[in-house]
Design brief:
The protein is mainly beta. It has 5 domains: about 35-275, no CATH class; about 390-500, Sandwich (Immunoglobulin-like), CATH 2.60.40.10; about 505-735, TIM Barrel; about 735-840, Immunoglobulins (Immunoglobulin-like); about 845-905, no CATH class. It has an 18-stranded mixed sheet that branches. Strands 3, 4, 7, 9, 14, 17 and 19 form a 7-stranded antiparallel sheet that branches. A 5-stranded antiparallel sheet has the order 29-30-28-32-33. The longest helix has 24 residues, at about 870-890. The radius of gyration is 34 Å and the shape is elongated.
């Protein structure tokens, strides 16, 4: 989601000459926010200042409507003298009262030097006669508490702060013909308090600044994290609030010549300004959201910023608010059904899709000085600058069922209309935020543009009349669906059918994402089931001073299991990702008992400032195994240091290939190259897939692990852990595979005599997402065989001669027609031990030793030390791993140059 910014002064240059706006108005949200004793948020004054400056007192929330005319008057009290005329909190707050010319809710006002104070006596104010349908009063009142209190200091009768419905004044409208019309002013109906307490809101009047959209937190810093996630501010708090009350004139054909104000209670009322309007309906009532397309002129660039006022540079509304603006996404309607799932649309350089809410008689004010009534756009009138978008008003229930069973099933869903506007279910974000740890939702924003959401199989949507485009997906075994549906006024329900076309799950394969953050367990369960991911490993962790998901960890529960009341097909288990900034990260999955701490160590940016290094990855791994867990090196290979010792010590079950949100990048050759080093040296570690999902910009299971559960075992989380340890796995972006060497599955070890021999390699591949282009047999890190794949050729075999200990794995390449080829899938290896030979790769072994030596050098020099005993313990762990590999190299006659094991004393500090 992108907003537009502007310089207010530049925008004001484009307003009409009759404008009464003040060009010195300041953003109401620019200052830091504090909260007073009433719970009212207010802007803090500038540093070193005890009073409000002129900018803070300005009245401005955008352009004004030409349908209104300011009513000049001469009041009875100088604003500069109000402080002496009022008492208590209201007197202290006078310095914050808006002044001068400006707008509120798109209505022009002029606050003169003398306002109208109503307190003890009747006040009569003559004005130049005028005609009007509506009269808008800009006024406010003191806090009022006229109720009695009982012995327990309780109010009786209780009317709340502001005394709901208390009759505080009569405003008498005086017509030129001598007749009068009384208007009863009641608290929290027609007028509110100068400071509003949260929850004690006004009913028929509004605060003097219309609501504004907020930038998401990563786009601005003036609001706190929590408040910015709402993406909206009602603007009804402040040190001084004027309230707009719109009175409908029952005699609009008679000139109004003056006003008489009669106090009914001992309460101070300040009237700051009066404006007359000629609109048909209440100018303070806006309609529900609508959309339109702004077409920029040639050479005009889209300005993607939003000011603290919530104002946009290239398009604004007077009697309303532009909520958002983003370049139109261009989907192809003609080949929608024939294209592929999750395809990123192009961005228009000229058309901006805007969302707005407004009064029916509002006008758009454009960057090119044009003013266009919203009614003209909504009626479909042809304009060069603005085009209508069909409103989403048709309530439709959408249901997704599985072919053959009729069962309602969760899916990932994308819907857009004829103008390519995203359409969300009524309980989902219209504007998902894909920033890190912000506004976390069950949504997916592919590459920042293609927006999807997850539903449990049934949802309600508001859809526009006309063509609506649907996209449904559910993992790697179910064919994605793309359909275009014509929505009419009679459309009440839609039902879509999805079909499982691949049978890997029926053969005992289960899919998993080994690395997900921040979701709640039940949100993770929904996203996993909608993406066809059988197991989501949700990882609690620490990020400096931030702890996430730690309250969800109990060391025993598997959400979605039959024991917990689920169907047992989709599971969520909370583990931990334990991290050290330099030494590395490690994922501890499915362990039982107490949480393994410290979760992070060694200081920022993983741990808190000043945290010493207390524990190694290898030690975390050992503890996890003692508690029955599985140990994964996440987003392998980085951070790349102590993971070497952890693998050499035999404590790692899998290395994780990671997507980080990209659907098209494939498995990184860099990750594979590092993994191959360990396999070349004989250290078997299974390949797993995890997304490291930390925002709506990543879908769970974008890259995933497929693991074979033994045929005689029921699928459970424990059975999955056992299968991971055995290593019968492959990692994939979409293509599925079967791979065997001499009939032995991935993760197996084959013993051969010293003569070696021939191995029969068989494979089968299939995909309903990424089209497969090539299959390659990897032997000891090199491509030994390669063959192209087509729909008519999706299985095959190789015969390989082996004369020394080797490992074999299958690599699958693929790509969409408009994307480059990627490594789309990779199997875990089959290890072949040839008698009398060893896995030898001296150059790789040296690089592994250098990593372990680097770990020790870090501990000895700049790493923050806990104490001498802890340092000695950790060093012994690293020395043991170093010695294991180093001695083996010498036994094999692999002599080499390397750093002395303990020659770091010169760097100690």
């Amino acid at each position: 989601m992108t907003y537009i910014n502007h310089s207010r002064r530049n925008f004001l240059k484009g307003l009409t000459a009759t404008s009464v706006l003040s060009s010195t108005a300041i953003p109401a949200l620019a200052a830091p926010i504090v909260v007073n004793e009433l719970g009212c948020a207010r802007p803090r004054t500038s540093p070193g200042s005890e009073s409000a400056n002129e900018n803070e007192r300005a009245l401005f929330d955008g352009p004004h409507s030409p349908m209104f005319k300011i009513v000049p008057f001469n009041g009875n009290t100088e604003f500069s003298a109000l402080k002496q005329s009022l008492s208590g909190d209201m007197a202290d707050a006078v310095e914050y009262a808006p002044s001068g010319q400006g707008t509120a809710w798109g209505i022009p006002f002029n606050i003169p030097e003398k306002g109208i104070l109503i307190k003890d006596n009747s006040v009569s104010i003559p004005v130049s006669p005028f005609l009007a349908n509506w009269v808008i009063f800009l006024h406010t009142s003191d806090h009022m508490d006229t109720s009695e209190r009982n012995d327990n200091n309780q109010n009786h009768p209780f009317k709340g702060r502001g005394q709901l419905n208390e009759h505080v004044a009569d405003y008498i409208i005086m017509y030129a013909d001598g007749t009068e019309e009384p208007v009863s002013i009641r608290e929290r109906h027609h007028i509110g308090m100068f400071q509003q307490m949260w929850g004690e809101n006004c009913i028929q009047s509004v605060a003097h600044h219309k609501p504004v959209p907020l930038r998401s937190h990563h786009e601005q810093t003036s609001w706190g994290w929590g408040g910015s996630q709402t993406r909206v501010n009602a603007m009804d708090r402040g040190q001084w609030i004027n309230w707009l009350c719109a009175w409908k004139n029952p005699h609009s054909d008679k000139e109004i010549a003056g006003f008489r104000f009669e106090p009914m209670k001992r309460v101070s009322i300040v009237i700051s300004a009066i404006t007359a309007g000629h609109v048909i309906s209440n100018p303070l009532r806006w309609r529900s959201r609508r959309k339109a397309r702004l077409v920029l002129s040639d050479g005009t660039q889209f300005d993607p910023k939003l000011s603290n006022d919530g104002l946009l540079s290239q398009i604004q509304l007077d009697l309303g608010q532009v909520i958002s603006a983003t370049p139109r996404l261009l989907y192809s309607a003609s080949d929608w059904e024939g294209s592929y799932n999750n395809k990123i649309p192009e961005k228009s350089k000229k058309e901006i899709l805007i969302e707005y809410t407004s009064h029916p008689e509002a006008r758009f004010h454009l960057y090119n000085n044009k003013q266009i009534p919203v009614t003209e756009i909504e009626r479909g009138s042809e304009h060069v600058d603005l085009k209508p978008v069909n409103p989403a008003v048709q309530n439709v229930r959408v249901r997704i069922i599985e072919k053959g069973t009729g069962k309602i099933v969760p899916v990932k869903l994308h819907v857009h209309g004829e103008s390519d506007e995203y359409l969300a279910p009524t309980d989902r974000h219209r504007i998902p935020n894909n920033a890190w740890f912000e506004d976390y939702s069950v949504d997916f924003v592919h590459a920042g543009d293609h927006v999807c959401t997850y539903i449990n199989g049934e949802t309600v949507m508001k859809l526009p009349i006309g063509e609506v485009h649907f996209e449904l997906a559910k993992g790697f075994e179910i064919k994605p669906v793309r359909e275009t549906v014509n929505i009419t006024a009679d459309t009440k329900e839609l039902e879509f059918e999805i079909e499982r076309v691949l049978s890997w799950r029926k053969k005992g394969w289960v899919s998993a994402d080994t690395h997900v953050h921040f979701l709640t367990p039940h949100s993770a369960l929904l996203e996993g089931s909608a993406e066809g991911v059988n197991i989501i490993n949700l990882l609690a962790s620490q990020w400096g001073e931030l702890f996430t998901n730690v309250g969800d960890f109990d060391g025993k529960s598997t959400i979605g299991s039959k024991e917990s009341g689920g169907d047992g097909e989709y599971l969520v288990r909370v583990g931990t990702e334990n991290r050290q900034h330099v030494l590395g990260h490690i994922s501890l999955l499915g362990y039982n008992g107490n949480i393994i701490t410290p979760i992070t160590t060694g200081g920022p940016d993983e741990s808190a400032i000043g945290d010493p290094i207390e524990i190694l990855l290898t030690e975390w791994a050992e503890q996890c195994k003692k508690q029955g867990g599985v140990v994964i090196l996440p987003h392998f290979p980085n951070p790349r240091l102590e993971n070497a010792a952890a693998i050499v010590s035999g404590n790692i079950d899998g290395v994780e290939m990671t997507s980080w949100g990209s659907l098209y990048s494939g498995i990184s050759p860099y990750s594979l190259s590092d993994w191959y080093r360990y396999l070349n040296c004989g250290y078997f570690v299974a390949a797993v897939g995890g997304t490291d999902k930390m925002s709506a910009g990543t879908a769970v299971g974008t890259i995933r692990t497929y693991t074979k559960i033994d045929e005689d075992l029921e699928f459970t989380y424990d059975a999955w852990k056992d299968a991971i340890r055995k290593g019968n796995t492959f990692v994939t972006y979409g293509p599925l595979m079967e791979f065997a060497v001499d009939g032995k599955p991935m993760g197996s070890r084959i013993e051969m005599s010293g003569n070696g021999g021939t191995l029969d390699v068989t494979w089968k591949v299939a995909s309903v997402t990424v089209p497969i282009s090539r299959v390659e047999l990897i032997v000891n890190g090199e491509v030994r065989e390669s063959t192209s794949v087509s729909p008519d050729k999706d299985e095959g075999s190789f015969r390989i001669q082996i004369n020394k200990s080797s490992w074999l794995a299958l690599l699958v390449r693929g790509h969409y027609s408009d994307k480059p080829e990627i490594i789309a899938a990779h199997s875990s290896p089959v290890m072949v031990d040839v008698e009398g030979t060893s896995f030898e790769a001296a150059a790789d072994a040296v690089t592994i030793l250098e990593q372990i030596e680097g770990s020790m050098a870090y501990l000895d020099t700049i790493g923050t030390q806990a104490d001498e005993k802890t340092l000695k313990r950790m060093r012994l762990v690293l020395e043991s791993a170093h010695r294991e590999l180093h001695n083996r190299m010498h036994q094999l006659g692999q002599y080499h140059n390397h750093s002395p094991l303990k020659d770091h004393s010169a760097h100690k500090g």
